[in-house]
Amino acid sequence: MRAYPPDAIALAMPVATGLAAAALAFLAGLAGIIGWCAQERRRLLRRLRAERDRLAAQERELEWAAAAEERFRIAGEMHDVVAHGVAS
Asked: How much of the chain exceeds pLDDT 90, in percent?
């Protein structure tokens, strides 16, 4: 194994320490970005599910209103038929 002079090791330490610190900072930043993306995805999914539920409820209300309107129309027609039959 090659022996390095003590001053060469002392010069290399700050560079190695700086690289390690830069790598740690990069990994911490990357972890932060990944965490933020995961949180935003969860928020988006919650909003989309809420919107889906709201639209489903609105669709049920529209279907109920359309059915009620149809029943009202049929009742009016039946009333006319019966009224004309009784009047004749």
From this structure: 65
Q: For 76-86, what is the mean pLDDT? A: 88
Distance CA 43, CA 3 (A): 57
User: d(Cα 69, Cα 16) in Å, to the nearest integer?
Assistant: 79
Q: How far is CA 47 from the centre of its chain?
A: 5
Q: How many CA atoms lie within 13 A of 7 on its CB side?
A: 0
The alpha-carbon radius of gyration of the chain (Å, integer) is: 38
Digit-coded pLDDT (tens) for 1-37 = 566 555 655 555 666 677 888 899 999 999 999 999 9
**CA 48 from chain center: how many Å?**
5
| Coil, strand or helix at 5 | coil
DSSP string for 19-64: HHHHHHHHHHHHHHHHHHHHHHHHHHHHHHHHHHHHHHHHHHHHHH
